[in-house]
């Protein structure tokens, strides 16, 4: 797999299509698995990790799955390329920054990625654009079965799939749906939604998972409990709550239209105006402004022909590693802000009809 | 009827904790307090619980070591990560209240690997052998390491 070619596309999760794609960005399911006869990654020696990697890599690249997996050993990649994979959500920040033999197997369309020697020996992940948990589950379940034909998983009848951290034991499954909720943020109702979700044991995280800020008004809703509930039950619980959040966001959007249409219109136009003319732009500010633009496009408040897939693409391409890949050079913070502003100006001029 | 020592309910369970030679403690508890006492490690009763299981005190309890990977329960408490799959058996009693706390359940319900997994004994033995191999390599005892490597290969292919 050529990493430079990755920057030309959006990958699966930002494709901007699929059910409820104006609010639901993507659906993701990950499974944690370990080999039965090795210590967990944090206790394994470099030798053992190399042995684990070799065994899993052989298995992964020979899988008879619909889409072929390419294996990328992380120590062979530059820090920039590792960061690129983090930004595309193909690997975790932990895997990018860890030591020793480790890697990731990625499917062509980026719908599947498998991390090797993360906190667990295997972290399988399936991604889909829009609200599509069932499809993601079908993919990941099948991949899990194929791997299990030749690999002895650490499993106990009592505790299920055994993981390095007891918070993942049981199904080892974390299923999450990423939502864009700008209207709930603007109407200050988002906290209320979070409290309700926490009561039913669902976690809310920012764009890049654990501990990350919810920049761009993106939120990931996922299950906390992995033991004592079947995969089907966990999926149903999330599947049932998402339509409610979607309807709250839609209600908040109508409230904004009804009660502060002028202010909203102003906000959206200022956002696109700033993006089109600023000469320095931080990553944070870009996320905030693009969030307003995304809301404006979905509510038909912009006269431009800018599309949702384009907005999604800009969210990704303006991340630090993507930007540097696009520019073909490594840039420091200040240079990045200037390059980012230039890139946004060009892209948004292409997209807008009324340039004058 | 005798009252529970921890609440006003009637005591239905009578526990005799052996604390050492000729030393014992009697406890009379209702069902609810008894299950709390038996499954949740409490500092006050830590000593008694340890004695029942043949350990002397909390300190020793935390020093309890996994025969496969060599981590102690205290290591897990400090890092939040277990050392190997066998730890779920070794530290089962210590982990149960924790799992109950995190998940509200203590028993898996969900997918099961299709193939019959390797026997537990074999898994434990392999982890032990790999652990010895690691030490042999660290000590640069390559003769021992080579022997262990062959043995592991042999066991895995069997």
Structure commentary:
The complex is a heterodimer of chains A (356) and B (158). Chain A is α+β, with helices and mostly antiparallel strands. Chain A has a domain at 250-355. Helix content of chain A is 46%, strand content 15%. In chain A, the strands form 2 sheets. In chain A, strands 2-3-4-5-1-8-10-9 form an 8-stranded antiparallel sheet, covered by helices on one side. In chain A, β4 (112-116) and β5 form a beta hairpin. In chain A, α8 packs across α9, α8 (231-277) crosses α12 (333-351) and α9 runs antiparallel to α10 (308-317). Chain A starts with a helix and ends in a 5-residue tail after the last helix. With 158 residues, chain B is mainly α. Chain B is 53% helix and 9% strand. Chain B is built from 8 helices and 2 strands, in the order ββαααααααα. Chain B has helices spanning 31-39, 43-52, 58-63, 73-79, 87-90, 92-103, 120-138, 142-157, and strands at 13-20, 23-29. In chain B, strands 1-2 form a two-stranded antiparallel ribbon. In chain B, β1 and β2 (23-29) form a beta hairpin. In chain B, α7 (120-138) packs antiparallel against α8. Chain B is elongated. Residues 41-57 of chain B have low confidence and may be disordered. At the A-B interface, α5, β6 and β7 of A face α6 and α7 of B.
